[in-house]
Structures are given as C-alpha cells and as structure tokens.
Design goal:
With 286 residues, the chain is mainly beta. It has one domain: Beta Barrel (Porin). The protein is 8% helix and 58% strand. The chain has one helix and 19 strands. The strands form five sheets. An eight-stranded antiparallel β-barrel has the order 3-7-8-9-10-13-14-17. A four-stranded antiparallel sheet has the order 5-4-16-15, with no helix packed on it. It comes from Mesorhizobium australicum (strain HAMBI 3006 / LMG 24608 / WSM2073).
C-alpha cells in the first residue's frame, strides 16, 4: 500500500514539472486584425452657383407682314388710308453668337434652378418684297437680350458626367435695325423698333466635373420668341408708304457651352468624406 501511494505521488510531481515544458510546445492562438469599418458622411448636395455661357445659334424668322398706304395728304406725318396688307416674299436670318451668364441654386442631387441672361449679337437679315411693278430687296440686323427662369433635372452622375434636361420661361427684348433696300440708288427705308416679347426654351445636355467646384456644361437649347413689331412707318410723305411691319417670332436652335462655379455646399463632384473610422478590434483564430 505504501509503495503504491509513493508511486502515485511521484507521478503527480513529474506531471507538475513536465506540464510547462509541454505547454511551451503547444501552438498559441494567432491574432488577426479585421479591416476597419469606414463610415462615409452622407452627401448633402446643394448650394449657390454662378455660370457663364457661349453659344452659336441659328434663328428662323416667321412670316413678316406690313401695311401699305396710299398717298399721304401732306408731308407732315405718316400716310393715312389703309390700302391693304402684304407679306415679305422671304426673310432669312444668318447664324450668330451669344454671350450669357446667370446665378442659380442646386436644390439637391437631382434638381437645380437658375436665372440667365443671354445677349444675342447682331445677325444679318435678308428678305424681299414685291408687288405688280416692283421687286425690292430688304436688309437689316437683329439683336436680342433673352432673360429666362430655368429649372433642370440632373438625371444621375456616372464617372463625373451628369446628363440633364430642363425648361425655361421669360422674355426677350428684340431690336431691329433700320430695314432698307441695299440696291445702289434705292431710297426706301423704315426705322427698326425694339420691343419686349414672351419667350420660352427647352434644353438638354451634360455636365462634367472638372474640380469639386467647377463644372463644364455643354448642351443644346431650343428657344422660341413671340412675334412683334419689326419696323415703323416709312419716311413722311412717301408715295406709296409702307409700315409698320411685324415679324411672327423666332425659332432658334442653340449649341451651348460654358462653366458653372459653385460657391457653397456640394455640387455632387466632391469625394465622400470619412466621418468616423473606429480602431480595429482583434480577431482570434485557431
């Protein structure tokens, strides 16, 4: 009995001394760091911007009507006694350029609005009139100031490119220079007029992020300007007299390019901002 107890005691002592040696040979659990989660700050798109635009446009003028008169009773005023109305046989405007600018506000990621002003530089006009005995060539120049309140839908952004559609409504001040016959020796002329008219436009295009503040904008715009007075009475005492004249408005196709600069907020071009990045927590693996 004593020998058995003594052997058991020696076995326990041996196991206690040997365990640290065996434990040192056992593999320790490895610690791997998980990639830290990144929380991006929600993009709050919106803010004020200014814009500048340059375009080339081609306008088609509608019919042009004018009134003809009989002989004036005296050279002291315009002729009286309406004899009838006539129309130009044709009338064409050459293409021209415009320069514009505006201020706007980007409401959110998909909607923005702005106020724009575009000055159309003078475009040459050529037309012609005729009656039973006379054929006349008519020349003039037309310029305009177009003011519009616009709204746009930015469809979405892919690789920095944002297609959009929009529409605008406003008015235009159209100015006609003197309408005259350029034929050598001809004396016919009618003073041109200036008048405000109703106008609207629809547009489509795309913008591209140059920086987080500057956007390149290119697109197409169709605009319509309502008809109005084109020229006044001819010289007092003219025989026969003509005037005033009225154009039936303009349909204009514009190819536009420009830049927008956003002052505040986010125009959708800035990279997401990391708002919070916690310390990584260790992960134990066997």
């Amino acid at each position: 009995m004593f020998n058995t107890a003594r052997k058991a005691l020696f076995a326990l002592l041996f196991a206690g001394l040997a365990w640290p040696v065996f434990a040192a040979d056992l593999p320790e659990p490895q610690v791997e760091e998980a990639p830290p989660p990144v929380y991006e700050q929600p993009v709050d798109v919106g803010g004020w911007y200014i814009r500048g635009d340059l375009d080339y446009h081609k306008s088609k003028v509608g019919d042009i009507d004018y009134i003809t008169y009989g002989a004036a009773p005296c050279p002291c005023g315009p002729p009286v006694g309406v004899a009838g109305s006539k129309s130009f046989d044709y009338g064409k405007l050459k293409g021209g350029f415009s320069l514009g600018g505006g201020v706007g506000y980007k409401i959110n990621e998909h909607f923005r609005t702005d106020l724009t002003a575009d000055y159309w530089f003078k475009s040459n006009f050529n037309g012609g009139t005729s009656d039973l005995t006379t054929v006349s060539v008519e020349s003039s120049k037309m310029s305009a100031l177009l003011l519009l309140a616009n709204a746009y839908v930015d469809i979405g952004t892919w690789h920095g490119i944002t297609p959009y559609v929009g529409a605008g409504i406003g008015g235009a001040r159209v100015k006609w220079d003197t309408v005259y016959d350029p034929t050598p020796g001809a004396t016919e002329s009618n003073p041109g007029t200036s008048s405000w008219r109703f106008a609207y436009a629809v547009m489509a295009g795309a913008s591209y992020c140059l920086t987080d503040k500057v956007i390149l904008d290119a697109g197409y715009r169709f605009s319509h300007i309502q008809g109005g007075r084109m020229f006044e009475y001819g010289p007092a005492g003219a025989t026969p007299g003509a005037g005033p004249g009225f154009d039936h408005g303009f349909n204009t196709h514009e190819v536009r390019g420009g830049l927008r600069y956003q002052f505040g907020g986010n125009n959708g071009c800035a990279a997401p901002v990391v708002a919070y990045q916690p310390e990584p927590e260790p992960i134990y693996t066997k």
